[in-house]
Amino acid sequence: MEIIKDYAVQMRGITKIFGHHKALDSVDLDVKKGETHAILGENGAGKSTLMNILYGLYTADEGQIYLNGEQVNIFNPNDAIHHGIGMVHQHFMLIDKFTVMQNIILGNETTNKFGIINTREAKKKVKEIIERYGMKVDLKRKIRNISVGMQQKVEILKALYRGAEILILDEPTAVLTPYEVDELLEIIENLKKDGKTIIIITHKLKEIKKSSKDCTIIRKGKFVGRVNVNEESEQSLAEKMVGRKVKLSVDKKPANPGKTVFEIKDLCVKCERGLEAVKSLNMSLKRGEIYGLAGIEGNGQQELLEAIISKRRCESGKILIDGKEIQNTSIRNVLDSKISIIHEDRHRDGIVLSMSVADNAILEKYRNEPFCKRGFLDYEARDKFADELIKNYDVRPEGCKNTKIRNLSGGNQQKLVIGREISNDPDLLIAVQPTRGLDVGAIEYVHKILVNLRDQGKAILLISLELDEILDVSDRIAVIYDGSIAGEFSQEEANERNVGLLMAGGRNNDRKDS
Fold first, then answer.
1. DSSP state letter for 43
2. Contact of 287 with 258, CB cutoff 8 Å
3. Mean pLDDT by groups of 10 residues along the chain of 514 residues
4. Residue 275, SS3?
């Protein structure tokens, strides 16, 4: 392919090898100036690796990079920033204790002749960027006190403050609410109108259709093709991505619920500020059903989960598993009560990044047989179990048990966590955003697993911000609003209109009061 000046980015024959694993095998990329270009691929396909090479976090073993038709060498992020490239990573690189303003200018401070930071000049420049692209942020607030969506805006502002003309967004909507996704798409449109070039790494097909004109597809580290998004359906994009037909909706027979296995009665829980986050909440789950909890982030979901697993104290009320009270006990007692949890934030609560895949696979049961014998870890049993999880849940690359889990893609980390929790044979599985960061093939697989568990008589509490997922997978659907259950629907009754109305705080005649 020829090198053209009208293209902001062209990458040719990019190859990257980690140990014995070829993460990228002679991949090409062509991105037009002033356009939004999507990079689509399965978990572990090499999307982030390709962009990390463009941003200078990795160096390619083979291949060339061209910016505006000129070949460049990018050995580190400083080189990339010098060439007008900015990157917003999937896991944000912000300092919690610093303010928004401090994070934006950190490492790129303007000083006077005495070495004192010229805050006034920096603030003026930041405010100009905010107004130009329609990003509402409070520069005085500390990072730990703002939403995830707001933190993402701070990351974008950081890149723009450093003069980015090419902006890479790695899984930008993976942690956003539907409202925040719409806000981000509007910001991207404003950036594009101003001549910026946007590269989005994603596997969310709806968002590719909304945001991008062209799409490069990578599969197992190889270039599959470049397509015009408007000429493709979501189904055809999915098939090109995974190399097979994919069902975008869940196939399942009607539920056959059994006895009640899990109950919450008049639960009240306070947040860090001492305010009631969960208010007289009632809920019950039966064996053999998937109970979906829908709601906009910040309506008590986090406090509810932390109360269930005894990470947060309940002010009043009861939480029962098989009739036994578990509130205000311990996380170990909850796990021993045959409850498994797929946490929303795998890095914070689900895995230990510095440990191997094999050690993470037995994180909750290393003290039990067959992994512990006479007080010592049985490495053979650990490795056998890890190999089974890797194979059964398609964790890539193959044979990665001795690899540090931090070196796996986010989607492959998530698949290991899901496999580990299901292997505990729980009576109740609490799945919080279980498909966050997964490609459509993996999402299809996870949904099948949840349905199979249901059919085996397990109870599943699905907490998700993805309304499509809640509507598609759940047998019963409840809406949490302002710390209480605002209403409940059967799957047949539920739709985007009546569930969405309750999520926004409205009332609905189709609603069943809980």
1. T
2. yes
3. 85 94 95 96 90 97 96 96 94 91 88 76 92 91 88 95 96 78 91 96 86 94 95 91 83 94 98 93 97 91 96 97 97 95 91 96 93 93 96 90 92 92 95 86 88 96 91 96 96 90 75 45
4. coil
Record the pTM.
Answer: 0.74
DSSP string, 469-512: HHHHH-SEEEEEETTEEEEEEETTT--HHHHHHHHTT---TTPB
**Residue 207 CB partners (closer than 8 Å, separation 6+):** 173, 181, 185, 200
Distances in Å between the Cα of 480 and the Cα atoms of 215, 273, 321, 340, 399 are 37, 20, 21, 22, 42
**What's residue 508's pLDDT?**
63
The identity of residue 499, as a single letter, is: V
pLDDT of residue 438: 80
The pair of structure tokens assigned to 484 is: 């209480």
Half-sphere exposure of 124 (CA within 13 A, CB side): 5
Cβ atoms of residues 387 and 356 within 8 Å: no
> What's the DSSP call for residue 87?
E
Torsion region of 140: left, alpha or beta (phi above 0 gives left; psi -120 to 50 gives alpha): alpha
DSSP-assigned states of every residue in 160-201: HHTT-SEEEEESTTTT--HHHHHHHHHHHHHHHHTT-EEEEE
What is the arrangement of strands in the sheet containing 214-219, beginning at the earlier edge strand?
85-88, 166-170, 197-202, 36-41, 214-219, 222-228
